[in-house]
Write a structure and sequence with these properties.
The chain has 432 residues and is of the alpha+beta class. The protein contains ten helices and eleven strands.
């Protein structure tokens, strides 16, 4: 049968409490059993000793009281009994004459305060009475009866119980000290293990490691756990690198290393949104190669790729850190200028790009070629009111530049404005 898991409101005992209770319980039970066995063995030995001692006391009384019994002197017999019985552990001593009549008797005064325990104790542990005949010159002249006193055995029992209790208390304190030391050497490494596992699970803290433990098994467990964390950390780093590589490939062109169309459009939409809030301008330069198809068809794809790579490098070299150039596909590129202070800044950048492309490009076969560009310029909000419109306006302006014969630039036509429209004012501190 499968045990039911504890409910969420139930507080489970800690390992420290469990170990402490187990050690204290084992110590108390062990000391209690040992104390009980030793006390019983002591009582059995004491009973045998008391029986033997009572016999010796009876013989001493027999020699002392023999003369008084022969002469039938009751006072002398009673004094003889009292002389020895009062100094020894004797409860009752009785002298009978030859006819069985009591000649003398001595009884120890009993303590009534412990009668409730002394009487049952006497029935269980006190040895039987010693009956000895009194013989004079071969004739039995009387009989001596002696019983032991249970007080001495009871006192021994009480001292034994007190000793056992003292041992139990001392053992419990020692067990608690051992439990505390056990907590330091066993529970603390396990607590560190739980803490590190919690940090790895909830915070992905794979760099955390367990400190060494003083117990071999726990130290080996910690080393294995640290080795597992090393592997997890290595896997996580590799996964992060692979994710970063995949993310870069998904957003960049593999040939030129530039961002691709999807990344450019995402960045353009965010820039136009921010410019609308901050009252800024954003420019898009749509770039198309004039001779790429001719070079690619006549001199091969390697030469076409070289033209694209050099074009990308030269455009990227002319941009500011805040600007972005992307390859849209084929021989089409786009530049995002944000923020833009004046449309003239976009025109000057377009002229620099055109001028940079007039330098010949070295092709893989050792030949050189010149590939001019056509650039269309559109500015938000002068030429479009949204990112899609701005992109299309720059594309249309690029075709206008091509119709001019290439190696030229053209700007998109301005939007018609209503009297309530006012162009955004850029912050004074911004520069192109």
């Amino acid at each position: 049968m499968t045990p039911k898991p504890p409910s969420s409101g139930t507080r489970l005992p800690t390992l420290r409490d469990a170990l402490r209770r187990a050690q204290v319980s084992v110590t108390v039970i062990a000391v209690g059993l040992v104390g009980l066995v030793l006390t019983i063995m002591g009582l059995v030995a004491l009973r045998a000793y008391a029986e033997h001692n009572t016999g010796l006391i009876a013989r001493s009384m027999l020699y002392t009281a023999e003369a008084s019994v022969v002469f039938h002197d009751a006072p002398a017999a009673r004094d003889a009994l009292a002389l020895i019985a009062s100094a020894e552990g004797v409860g009752t001593a009785i002298v009978f004459d030859s006819d069985g009549l009591v000649l003398a008797q001595w009884n120890r005064a009993s303590d009534t305060s412990f009668a409730w325990i002394q009487q049952p104790f006497e029935r269980i542990f006190t040895p039987p009475p010693i009956v000895t005949p009194i013989v004079h010159r071969g004739h039995t002249v009387g009989t001596l009866l002696v019983t032991g006193h249970p007080g001495s055995m009871l006192a021994f029992l009480l001292k034994g119980v007190a000793g056992v209790l003292a041992c139990l208390i001392a053992s419990a304190m020692l067990a608690r000290a051992i439990a505390r030391r056990t907590f330091e050497h066993i529970v603390e490494p396990l607590r560190n293990l739980a803490r590190v596992a919690h940090a790895v699970r909830n915070e992905r803290a794979f760099a955390v490691r367990l400190p060494p433990a003083e117990i071999a098994e726990l130290n080996a467990l910690g080393e294995d756990f640290n080795a597992l964390l090393d592997q997890l950390q290595a896997w996580q780093n590799q996964l992060q690198r692979e994710n970063a590589t995949l993310a870069h490939k998904a957003a960049h062109d593999s040939l030129t290393g530039l961002p691709n169309r999807a990344h450019f459009e995402e960045r353009l939409a965010q820039s136009v949104h921010d410019a609308g809030i901050l009252g800024q301008r954003v420019a898009v330069l749509f770039i198309d190669s004039d001779r790429f198809k001719e070079i690619n068809d006549q001199q091969g794809h390697a030469s076409g790729d070289a033209v694209l790579v050099h074009t990308a490098a030269r455009v990227r070299h002319l941009l500011r850190e805040s600007d972005l150039v992307a390859r849209l596909g084929g021989d089409e590129f786009a530049v995002l200028m944000t923020p833009l202070r004046d449309i003239e800044n976009a025109r000057r950048l377009a002229e620099k790009i055109l001028a940079s492309m007039r330098t010949p490009i070295r092709l893989p076969g050792g030949t050189e070629t010149v590939s001019s560009l056509s650039i269309g310029i559109a500015v938000y909000p002068d030429h479009a009111r949204d990112a899609r419109g701005l992109f299309d306006a720059a594309d249309a302006a690029m075709y206008s530049a091509k119709r001019l014969g290439g190696d030229s630039q053209a700007s998109a036509p301005a939007l018609s404005r209503s009297p309530s429209d006012s162009p955004p004012s850029a912050p004074k501190e911004q520069a192109s």
